[in-house]
């Protein structure tokens, strides 16, 4: 069951818009700090925070929809 959920999360991350996906992966998966992402992508830190918030919210919504579909 956990494997199914993890596969679903990976699929949902792949479906994020590129701008959200790249920042989400750099921060959540690769463990980079805001400052590191900001320097490497030349994006203000506040923009990174907003994109992360949007990515997390979108993933939460999609996971909630998935949960409702499977119950």
Number of helices: 4
**How would you sum up the major sheet?**
none
Helix content: over 70%
Strand content: under 5%
What does this structure look like?
- The chain has 71 residues and is mostly helical.
- Helix content is 85%, strand content 0%.
- Helix 1 (2-15) packs across helix 4 and helix 2 crosses helix 4 (45-70).
- The mean pLDDT is 92.
Question: Can you give keywords for this protein?
Answer:
71 residues, mainly alpha, 4 helices
Q: How would you briefly describe this protein structure?
A:
The protein is mainly α and 71 residues long.
Record the SSE blueprint:
Blueprint: H1 2-15, H2 18-29, H3 34-41, H4 45-70
């Amino acid at each position: 069951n956990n494997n199914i959920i993890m596969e679903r999360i990976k699929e949902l991350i792949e479906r994020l818009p590129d701008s959200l996906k790249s920042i989400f992966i750099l921060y959540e998966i690769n463990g980079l700090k805001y400052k590191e992402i900001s320097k490497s992508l030349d994006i203000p830190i506040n923009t990174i925070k907003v994109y992360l918030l949007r990515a997390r919210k979108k993933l939460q919504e999609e996971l909630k929809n998935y949960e409702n579909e499977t119950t």
